């Protein structure tokens, strides 16, 4: 929207399907970390990094901020959930264990292959992040006049 470029969004069930179509030249671009091994193999071009800082594996790929689009970062993030009603002490124990695992080199190496970075957060921080993301995406949906069909 900020660039004025008219892009058709093609919804897929997941990254694998969209990656197959990108490699077959059925679509011209995608925003998916699973494509990075194909960038390393020379099959795809990396246009930018959706993160506040450049990624060490791809030092020549600029961030959106560097390209002149501040506040355009849209990093994908994941969270692990437990069923509603799970006792708080169990949720806290799970959060502590997940944060412990996220600091291991094995997980860092696995995530690095798809340009992901583990972000360790306390439960309150996760809730704040979630609320801020909802506000940001809601504003984008309104600005883009997105309608459900």
What does the secondary structure layout of this molecule look like, with pairings?
Blueprint: H1 15-23, H2 36-40, H3 88-102, H4 105-112, H5 123-143
Q: Specify the structural class.
A: mainly alpha
- Share of residues in strands: under 5%
What is the molecular shape?
A: globular
Total strands: the figure is 0
> SSE order in H/E notation?
HHHHH
* Tally of individual helices: 5
Tell me the distance between the termini: 20 Å
Average pLDDT level = 86
Low-confidence stretches: none
Helix proportion: 25-40%
Rg value: 18 Å
| Main beta sheet strand tally, sense and closure | none
Structure description:
The protein is an all-alpha fold and about 150 residues long. The protein has a domain of about 70 residues. About 40% of the residues lie in helices and about 0% in strands. The protein has 5 helices and no strands. The protein is globular and about 50 Å long. The chain starts with 14 loop residues before the first helix and ends in a 6-residue tail after the last helix. The mean pLDDT is about 85.
State the main characteristics.
149 residues; mainly alpha; 5 helices; globular
Please summarize what this structure is.
By secondary structure, the chain is mostly helical. The protein contains five helices and no strands. The chain has helices at 15-23, 36-40, 88-102, 105-112, 123-143.
